[in-house]
Amino acid sequence: MLTQKSSPAGTSTESAPAATAEPQATATAPAARDLDSVICYFQGDFVPMRDAKVSIMTHAFMYGTATFEGIRAYWNADQGKLYGLKIREHVERIRQSCRILLMENVPSVDDLTRLIIETVRRNGFREDVYIRPSFYKSTKAIGVRLHHLENELYIIAIPFGNYIDVDRGVRVMTSTWRRNPDEALPARGKIVGGYVNMAFQKSEAEMNGYDEAVVLTADGHVNEASAANLFMIRDGVALTPPVNDDILEGVTRKAMLELLANEKIPVEIRSIDRSELYVADEMFLCGTGVQISPVIEIDQRPIGSGEVGPIGKLIRDRYFDAVRGRLPEYRHWLTEIPLN
User: At what angle do helices 87-100 and 109-121 cross, to 10 degrees?
Assistant: First the structure.
């Protein structure tokens, strides 16, 4: 079960000053880093990644019985600060996923947040970072089940840039693979084994020359991308599927709802038909990985003008200013991570 051998540093949520710099989606690429030497949190201690190993008999390795979160931290070179984005919200969600997976002895929100911040701090990153905490069934056992299994925690943090192009817009196709329904595999939990479903979708799209997949529910409604939530703009209104259409309750999706409201863009949460995407004025994906990625084409049909639209550009630019600490009104999204 979980033990803590080190006392992590406390959390800081200092406000970031406003800046007049132009919006930037990416930071300057730093020198390559030896990932084996990166410090991670593993089974109660902070160790180099090379020393974080599990047996091939580990239940999570054999059956996908684990849950995870993807969290971004953004480097602001002008301020010399690293900002973790919505860390507590991600922590709250992973604890919910642990409940779904019958996991016990999970640290509190405060304790897990401190562990995440300390893992990042120990690496002294001065670049954009991807953080992945994961609880996994650590018992060495054969047999498909969730009960009577121990669980452990690891946290990794690595340098990370763009997952897909956020500037020019992305091309997507409707996947032939449907989203697993909640009654088969809980969609609101980030369950590791469930991501094989997304892997089928993503590979199908990329092998057919597209950047991403749009996924439908079992009954044919628009669900999300392979690993991102979806918004479309029609007649000045932002539309997005509801949580009961088997979507992941995205942390970035909630941030988008707040940002759209602040920009006075009406939002309607309802089921969306596939053909509605074909007549959309604009469309964008959002999530920790894709960040804010405007869509310019679906199934060989241009979205709107076939270029990044005005609302998509506005939302994307505001988002990247917010996550890099340039907009004081979004300082509640950010946690400043101490540097070594």
Answer: 120
